[in-house]
Automatic annotation (TrEMBL):
This is Acyl-CoA dehydrogenase family protein. Residues 128-210 form the Acyl-CoA oxidase/dehydrogenase middle domain. It comes from Streptodolium elevatio. Residues 12-123 form the Acyl-CoA dehydrogenase/oxidase N-terminal domain. Keywords: FAD, Flavoprotein, Oxidoreductase. Belongs to the acyl-CoA dehydrogenase family. The keyword Flavoprotein applies. Its cofactor is FAD.
Amino acid sequence: MTVDLTPGPVAEDLARRTARFVRETVVPVEERLGGVPGSDDVRLELQRAAREAGVFAPHVSPEYGGHGLDMRDRAFVFEEAGYSLLGPLALNIAAPDEGNMHMLEAIASPAQKERYLRPLAAGATRSCFAMTEPAPGAGSDPAALATTAERIPGGWRIDGRKWFITGADGADFVIVMARTSGAPGDAGGATMFLVDAGNPGMRIVRHIETLDESLFGGHAEMLFDGCTVPDDAVLGEVDEGFRYARVRLGPARTTHCMRWLGIARRAQDIAVARAAERELFGSRLAELGMVQAMIADNEIDIAAAHGLILQACADLDRGGSGAQSTSIAKTFCAEAVWRVVDRSLQICGALGVSGDVLLGRFLRETRPFRIYDGPSETHRWSIARRVVRRHDAAHAR
């Protein structure tokens, strides 16, 4: 299958304007704040500026105030937004809200779209997605889901503990996965629920200190203890939560790759600029073979990651699950982005580890991506298993 490596005309224009907006408006704020967004005032001001620049919400349909880009065209825009750690937040395409918007638009009822999707797409609210649990609960293996939801008169009671819930602090609502049938380890039996902030049965237990700090709202541990919700809080159908999670999972892991690829390009630009101006041993760094090798390897990693992202986007835009291509893209990109940032920091030497440039922040932010959205080892296991199944099917007698 041929994969188109060029954006459509609308996406090309939007990517160009996004690049200009991020460099002129967002990067100065990012550098002033050290890459950590801080207060909600920063988010609202950046999103106001993005609206004025006409680059806000490129991923949601025009019905909800967006540009309605498909996955392939998102790749070009999201990458430009990701050139700054705060760019995705400004365009309202940061995790977890971006993935939640995608899922709500795909499976929410009309009433739920008006109540939850519309204000989320406008940046008037924030959200989080509560699936991951402390051991032995759901993590890399979603089937280990231990949080339960039981029917009660007029609705459901949710009980369980979640952690590493990105964006939970200050979220206006939570999409929570709970088991409504079966037992931990069963492949089915999960349901998604929409839980409003302020529900007395839901609370943040603690804010988890992590290596990364740029994802707005941090990472929290949450307790659901007698959390009651009405029947209309069910998102989609009962017991179909794992199927719906796949609607979110493939696109969300791919858009993560797009955003982090922007940071890889930023790191490369910083390193190349330094190598071109810094003189050592009678020549510019850029003229030394070892530095040239690192610059070249960065370009190779960036180009390969971009191609794998577009392959995954093509699979998703055709309506496929994209399970294999998104796993391949996620594994390669998570490791390639880390390599690019690490090499770039090495090229810059002492400057790279200082606070004068943000390469140290980029390194801390990109390292967890090799764990979030599935560790590289889990994806490799899944990729290999699919290859073996394909071989077995082809050679079955």
